Amino acid sequence: MVCKNCGQKLQKDAAFCPKCGSQIIRKKQISNGGMVFLITVVLIAVAAVGTVAGVLRYSSDRKELESKAELPDAVVMQEQVLELQTETVSVTDAEPAQEPEQTAENTFDAYEEFGITQGRKENYAENLDTSAYRYYSSGITDFNFFYPAGLYGEIVYNEKQTESNYGTNMISIEFIGSAGAKLIVSLWQYGNMSIETMTETVYNTEMAAISDAAPVIHKVWEDYGRVILTGTMDTGESLIWSMTKIEPQYVLQMQIISSKYQAGYADRLQKGYVLESLYRLCPFSGSSYTCRSYEVYKAETVKLDEKIEQSREWYYWTQDNLDNLQVEDRNGVIYVSDAGVIRKVTVPAGMDATGYARDYYYVDNRLYFALVHNNNVENRFYFSDDMLIRYIDDKQVTYDLEDADAHIDAASGFQKEAYALIGQTF
Fold first, then answer.
1. Residues 219, 230: contact at Cβ < 8 Å?
2. Distance of alpha carbon 30 from alpha carbon 55, whole angstroms
3. Angle CA(248)–CA(140)–CA(195) in degrees, nearest 5?
């Protein structure tokens, strides 16, 4: 026997549902001996909710009242109560109705909540305006952060309370880009452990989990600790920053993982800028909350003018000292060395079908400048850390950084040849 209102299973003699409090009326005849008890129970229940007048309806039909005037009061009350069966909850032996299926209206939609467009393609170039980043606050301690919603196409939101080295998971949010970018923000609650002990636990765990881990901060203050590490993922092809703050009872962490680097300087600059901005905006990183613009970041990070000037100094030193350096002809290719260290290699124009001569300049066995020329036609390639930072074409048009990426294929071909000439691979 179950309650029709909520489906709760009932005791055989129950007068009210123990779950929802609904009155239980049975359709079978009630004996005269139990009539007074039933009436008393009904009156008490109705009075408790202040609806006696609504439940005990008396007919406005004068004739009906007169016809019942001769009946005992208890019998009249019984008939009035039974008339209310159409408006009160009755008992049935049938199984309770199934609960309605959950729909989008009554379930938590993480994509909508965090403004993530499912399936969006990862594009760092479209997420360089930090003023457009969204803000999330959990309401728990200072677990809040900014994030570029336009960078990610998937999200995994988890409040399942699982255990880890850092305590019980309270919230874990993982933003995922289509090319491998990730932003993982987590909150744990731990028990009877000092801040110092938990800080060491975090440090040791993160050092073991991150390849080429390098500590940036590992320190405990009076009422909190902080661990910040950098490293690599995917065999060194992408970067990770792991930032963790340890408070009394709580561990707050943000991990920023860039997708694998693509060819060209623009990709590294854009990924580096997003990473730095997320770090600066993260409240538990201990940073300033202020971000540089992308243009300022690019100028201050690359220091292009300084790199170009340094390349020119190395170039002119080699050219000015050719008479004092060792020159060797190896099957038509000319090598110029300083105390055994190669400074320049020249491939004459007639060596192959290209028709161009190539002059490669090195410092510490790294290529920094390539001059590709034929008669009065020159193409100049400047490199820093094996990245093309400037290209000057045969019309003397200069392309820097991202603009130079359009010529990365040609530059890569010359880099491969340059390194092969000195016994290295690129």
1. no
2. 19
3. 15
